[in-house]
Write a structure and sequence with these properties.
This protein is α+β, with helices and mostly antiparallel strands. The protein has 4 domains: 1-29; 34-135, no CATH class; 164-206; 308-487, Lipocalin. 42% of the residues lie in helices and 34% in strands. It has a 10-stranded antiparallel beta barrel. A hairpin with a 4-residue loop joins strand 9 and strand 10.
């Protein structure tokens, strides 16, 4: 009886094993044959690492498996069985992704855009993303290695000789000189800022009633400015178009400047190689000695000119009524402290006014026997100023040409020339009162001025209020800037 029970148990276990094996076989066969899913395929140039029954995933989740891989028209046709719960659309993508460092790959699907045409059973997934192969990576690494070797060779050619080390030392020396000059300017401006703060503190503590009156006047002036701006509102569109045209001109000028810099680089390279007259002058020691001799002979002739001071000024004003910028380029030649000659180039948004008068006569008894007709036209252009000035104490008197017409002016200086009040009277036209401009300027820093004023005060219909700033440099400052620019240009040319 005991032997029979053991035999029964063994037979029962054998039957269960056979049934389980048959069940597992049917499940594997059904899944491998595509039961419960639909088939799609894709064509790859390279199917290395893909084997039948490899996983097909979407967002990292298995959604199917590779069924077969075979050759079709010189490409690898990879057929996949996808779960029917997963929907693929016409722009679906399939890619080959490495699953380990041993060269094993799996397929990765992206479903595409919902709402487009669905891919049916047996259709092709057309959008492929084939990753780089190991051979491609090795070729890229080899190309990068060659480029790195070329760069290191060029760096060695530049800095591995005496000339390269000399150029590097000269560049460091120029940088040191530049930082020292910047340090000097910072110290000088620090003292000026401290002095300005003391002046502001004095004004705020000692002149409070006057400040209150000034604020009240400023409020009334701002109300007048608002009224003037409201009256000239229709001109805003014209101003915007002028600004756009100015920006286009500035872009064209920047392109011309880049071309000019390219020509300058070409010329400096030729000079460094000793080409042309200037190149021979730089490279030929004998010629340099001859030029030095001639220069020493001329030194005695031009020595008196050394006392001549050159003052360069750059000024920009914003006019509130016409809503435009007025720019000045100013040169002041000063042989002595009490006299100078002023030359300006002005870009005025008002333009140049051309006035013409015609006297007409008539024999008609109903008309006057003689009358005068005056016409005015305005054109965009550049004006210039050329005046001679003489200083007597705190006042400087000027006369000559003011903005392309005759004019005179008076300047008053105070606080060691840190405060300046300028008055200009010019454009003595027969059809209107002369143009009177009053402006005040204050030196906040050593070379920086802020200014404000009123233009054309005597003609209310043309009156304007402006604010601006000015940079002013003397000979010493210009020499410093030129030395710095020359050092940079020499370094670039080498």
């Amino acid at each position: 009886m005991r032997n029979l029970s053991s035999a029964f148990k063994v037979g029962l276990l054998l039957i269960v094993a056979i049934v389980g094996s048959v069940f597992l076989y049917r499940v594997v066969v059904q899944r491998g044959s595509g039961a419960g899913g639909y088939r799609v395929y894709a064509l790859f140039r390279d199917a290395s690492g893909l084997v039948p029954r490899s996983r097909v995933t979407m967002a990292g989740i298995p959604v199917g498996r590779i069924d077969t891989i075979r050759l079709q028209d010189g490409m690898a046709r990879v057929e996949m069985v996808i779960s029917r719960e997963v929907e693929l659309y016409d722009d679906a993508t399939v890619s080959r992704k490495a699953s380990s460092l041993l060269g094993e790959f799996l397929m990765v699907l992206a479903p595409g855009t919902a709402g487009t045409r669905r891919i049916g059973d047996g259709e092709r997934v057309r959008v492929l993303q084939e990753g780089a192969t190991t051979d491609d990576i090795l070729q890229n690494v080899n190309a990068i290695t060659r480029r790195v070797r070329d760069v290191t060779d060029r760096v060695g050619d530049v800095f591995g000789n005496d000339e390269g080390r000399r150029q590097m030392a000269e560049a460091l020396r120029n940088l040191t000189e530049t930082t020292q000059e910047i340090n000097r300017l910072v110290h000088a401006n620090s003292e000026a800022v401290t002095h300005t703060i003391r002046n502001v503190d004095h004004l705020t503590t000692e002149a409070d009633p006057r400040v209150q009156r000034l604020l009240a006047n400023l409020e009334r002036a701002s109300q007048r400015v608002d009224t003037i701006v409201a009256d000239n509102q229709p001109n805003i569109n014209d101003t915007i178009r002028n600004v756009q045209e100015t920006m286009r001109n500035a872009n064209a000028a920047s392109r011309d400047l880049r071309e000019s810099l390219g020509h300058v680089n070409s010329v400096t390279a030729g000079i460094d190689r000793g080409e042309g007259t200037v190149g021979r002058l730089v490279r030929d020691d004998h010629l340099v000695n001859e030029v030095e001799g001639v220069a020493e002979g001329l030194n005695d002739l031009v020595a008196p000119i050394g006392r001549l001071q050159l003052i360069l000024g750059l000024r920009t004003e914003y006019n509130f009524v016409i809503n435009g910028l007025k720019s000045y380029l100013e040169f002041r030649l000063q042989p002595r402290e009490d006299r100078h000659m002023l030359f300006q180039i002005i870009d005025d948004p008002r333009g140049i006014v051309d006035r013409r008068s015609v006297i007409r006569t008539s024999t008609n008894p109903a008309d006057p026997a003689m009358w005068r007709e005056t016409t005015e036209s305005t054109q965009r252009g550049v004006r210039f100023t050329l005046q001679f000035a003489r200083r007597l104490g705190p006042a400087t008197f000027r006369f000559g040409i003011m903005e392309s017409v005759g004019g005179i002016g008076v300047d008053l200086n105070a606080l060691r020339d840190r405060v300046e009040v300028r008055t200009d009277l010019f454009d003595f036209s027969t059809s209107q009162l002369p143009r009177l401009r009053v402006m005040g300027a204050y030196a906040m820093l050593q070379h920086v001025y802020v200014l404000a004023g009123v233009d054309d005060v005597l003609n209310p219909q043309r009156a304007d209020v402006f604010l601006g700033a000015q940079l002013r440099f003397r000979d010493d400052d210009l020499r410093t800037l030129l030395l710095f620019a020359g050092g940079l240009l020499g370094t670039v040319a080498r």
